[in-house]
């Protein structure tokens, strides 16, 4: 299973950029307003920053309607979990790294007036 499928995304574009570079655009299935551009680091300076673009915190948040299902499927796709799931006032969350070291939070929001 491709990581795109695992995360519930669809591939919009996968185009070579020369010299080993790649331009990949994905978006969650369904919505048409959202997309992510995933570009390979270009050289040692950019490679050193992969996974640390947000000061060591997760910079990407993947919301789910079934945390247990999605959290269980991630290791099979090569995703590295950074912690056991925890319950916060806003919902269930666990940090993970994608295949390239980018930090994400998998979040199942709590449905309440305060947290939407």
TrEMBL record:
Known InterPro entries for this protein? Answer: Glyas_Bleomycin-R_OHBP_Dase, Glyas_Fos-R_dOase_dom, VOC_core
- Which stretches make up the VOC domain? 1-109
One of the Pfam families matching this protein, by short name: Glyoxalase
Looking up PROSITE patterns in the UniProt record yields: VOC (PS51819)
Q: Quote the SUPFAM superfamilies the UniProt record gives.
A: Glyoxalase/Bleomycin resistance protein/Dihydroxybiphenyl dioxygenase
Gene3D superfamilies given in the database record: 2,3-Dihydroxybiphenyl 1,2-Dioxygenase, domain 1
Annotated PANTHER family: GLYOXALASE/BLEOMYCIN RESISTANCE PROTEIN/DIOXYGENASE, GLYOXALASE_BLEOMYCIN RESISTANCE PROTEIN_DIOXYGENASE
- Its recorded name reads VOC family protein
- Species for this entry: Streptosporangium amethystogenes subsp. fukuiense
């Amino acid at each position: 299973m491709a990581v795109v499928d695992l995360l519930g995304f669809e591939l919009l574009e996968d185009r070579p950029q020369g010299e080993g570079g790649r331009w990949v655009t994905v978006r969650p299935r369904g919505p048409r307003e959202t997309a992510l551009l995933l570009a390979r680091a270009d050289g040692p300076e950019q490679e050193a920053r992969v996974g640390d673009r947000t000061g060591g915190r997760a910079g990407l948040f993947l919301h789910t309607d079934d945390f247990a299902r999605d959290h269980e499927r991630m290791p099979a796709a090569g995703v590295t979990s950074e912690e056991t799931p925890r319950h916060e006032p806003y919902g269930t969350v666990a940090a993970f790294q994608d295949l390239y070291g980018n930090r994400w939070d998998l979040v199942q929001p709590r449905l309440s007036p305060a947290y939407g």
